[in-house]
Amino acid sequence: MWSDSAKSLFSDRKARAVGDIVTVVVVESTTSSQSASTTGDSTVKASSSSAAGPLKILPKLSFDGQDTMESKGSTSRSATLTARIAARVVRVLPSGDLEIEGTRTVTTNGEKQELKLRGVVRPEDIAPDNTVLSTFIANAEITYTGKGTVGVRQRMGIITRLIRLIW
Fold it and tell me: What is the pTM of this model?
C-alpha cells in the first residue's frame, strides 16, 4: 500500500517541507591578517626679534622642537571548524528555498560545547543522501561556544583585564 511517508522508487528522500531534517556538513576555514606601519616627523621653529617700544627690555625669544614617531603592528588569526549537525526546516520561502536551524550540544567531562547553525539552503544543493555543505548555506550564522573548566582557564582574569585597560 502506498503512503506519503513511504520512500519513492524514483527519488531520494530529501528535506523539502517544514519539520523535515537535513544534515549539514560544517566545513569552515577562515584566515585573516592585517598589518600597519605609521611614521611621522614634525619640526617646529619659532623666533622673535627684539621687542619694540616699551617692551624693549624683553630678550629675543626662540624655540626649536622636533618630534619623530614610528609605530608598527600586525595581527593574524585562523580558525577551522569541521562538524556534522542535523538542522530542521523552519520555513519554506516563496522562492522554494528552505530556512533551516539546528543546535548540537555536547558535554564531556564538565565541558559544554554548543554548535548553533541557521541559514537558507536551496533544495537543489541538498545531496541525494540529504546532506548539504555549510558553504552552500546563504546568510549562514554558525556559532561554536564552549563553557567549562578549559574555557574558564582560557579567559583573562579580572585583574589582568584591568591592568591591560590601564596600559
Answer: 0.60
Would you list the domain boundaries of the chain?
Answer: 21-30+75-166
| φ/ψ (deg, to 5) at 46 | -145, 145
Beta bridge partners of residue 33, listed in sequence order = 76
Angstrom CA distances, 47 to 55, 57, 60, 117, 121, stand at 16, 16, 8, 68, 72
149-158 contacts: CB < 8 A, separation 24 or more?
Answer: 149/110, 149/111, 150/111, 151/111
Q: What is the pLDDT of residues 87-108, one digit of tens each?
A: 999 999 999 999 999 999 999 8
Residue with cell string 582560557: 154
CB 86 within 8 A of CB 102: yes
